[in-house]
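Re: folding output
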Amino acid sequence: MNMVLGDALSLLLFRLHSGRLLGINLLKVNEIIPCPALTKMPSRHPHVRGVATLRGSALTVIDLARAIGERGGSDSQEGCLIVTELSRSRQGLHVHSVERIVQCSTRDVRPPPSGAGPRAFITGVTQIDGTIVQILDIEKVLHEIAPAPLEEVGEQLLSPAEQQLLQGRRVLVVDDSQVALQQTLITLRQLDLDCQAVRSAASALEVLHEAQQEGRPVEVLVSDIEMPEMDGYTLVQQIRKDAVLGETYVLLHTSLDSTMNTERARAVGANDVLTKFSRVDLSKALLRAFQRLDD
């Protein structure tokens, strides 16, 4: 399989107690461990099995099967934990078993079927050795259990001059996760930005071209990195080699630790990279973008 920069995707394959096969981006996985002893918290969410202690730090353990609407295991000691770190939090996903790591191309990942519905908890599907693999929308799982706090931005964060700088400026957001998309749009609307949103990189390219043709070009693109068919890195590459769109300011907005992605983001031509999700940090990143555009 020939893969270019930004095109390769490593998936950790695992199974739930029902036998359902799922995959998760390997970059989101810290480690895999046997399920340790858990402390049950009286006020815990029903999809949280308990809290484990991992090297001196508390780790919330989520029953992944229950979180996505299936029956979980009856014994908290069976199975294993996939320890993930994303969107500035760390948690353990309790699953039945882990199978293997596989390589595929983002071009081979398709969006979820249209009939999957809002409770599907998957961001895409692909085939591995003839077997369908569903890719977990872990951001949606975490949001269902602990929604991001609605911290206010605007007057509390920005000076009047900074608010004026952002008012009415044109921003396009692309993210395949409906949860992440809505979180971002709430912040942009609080900042009084003129914003549009799409769910795929291909749609983002279409909107960017249409806006140029209408004489109201998008000034800043806020793009997720992990998306089916064309990821954020490839999207930036497409923009940079486009004679019309080449100077568009691109902020890559990722659930992964941005320190892991900065070098790769710069290599493909992104202007900035930010870890989801902090409304304050996103506001500051957008302010930086428009200050640079106006220099």
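--- second protein (sequence, then structure) ---
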Amino acid sequence: MTFRLVASDLDGTLLRDDGSVAPRTRAALDAVRAAGAAVIPVTARQPIGVRAIAAAAGIEGRVLCSNGALCVDPGTGETLWEETVAVAAQRELAHALRRAVPGVLFASVRDRGEVFVAEQDYIAGVRYADHKRDPATMIPAGWDLVTGTASLKFLARHPALPADALLEAARSLGVEGVELTHSGAPFLEVQPAGITKGAALARLCDALGVAREEVLAFGDAPNDRDMVAWAGHGVAVGNAAGEVREVAAEVTASNEDDGVARVLERLLAGGAFGR
């Protein structure tokens, strides 16, 4: 089988822990592109966060952002799709989650990921690394304004609880119209129902005429599980969550030990990439 498309998560997978692109990884990506295969980042980041590392990774063309809710070319601004969480669904979830977990805080990412509106206490606890954007650019607002506009991604965090605990609590509520996950960052991530990295990758591949069997995918976090499971050959990096490792066809070295590059180099040596 020839792989025509490589899909990779960024943080914790393609990138080192400090957010950099290892020279070995960049060389492998360049070789894959030279062989004729497409390289598509599939990330929880918004375009603002992708632009920050685009040059280092050689990212050009389409990117699946916001866990697949947004397909965009950050260079040209072309948007293929943007799916949003309905106001009624996010308000129902926010009401129910705040009753179940007092102290939870909310934020809304909008307008192709360029606008970030959040409760003041949410912003107070944020670091740049959390959302790959300067907290000073976040717009403070009350609950009604945060929840009152459809979100590309709706977010919840708690000062004392990790994301996996919020995810478990949110899933127990049974709210319809939402997809719940997290990417290893300290917050719950909410997309429209049915929007996952795997579903978005399948949608893009259909548009490009690329078969599932021709897709190689890499991931590490719970939000990567569907993508790794869907791809013709799904790879978990060594630091991946157990649920990702369970569905992967292969487990490589960690993101700190050039795991993605190691697989690409092996497959390149076997002539596995092409148009």
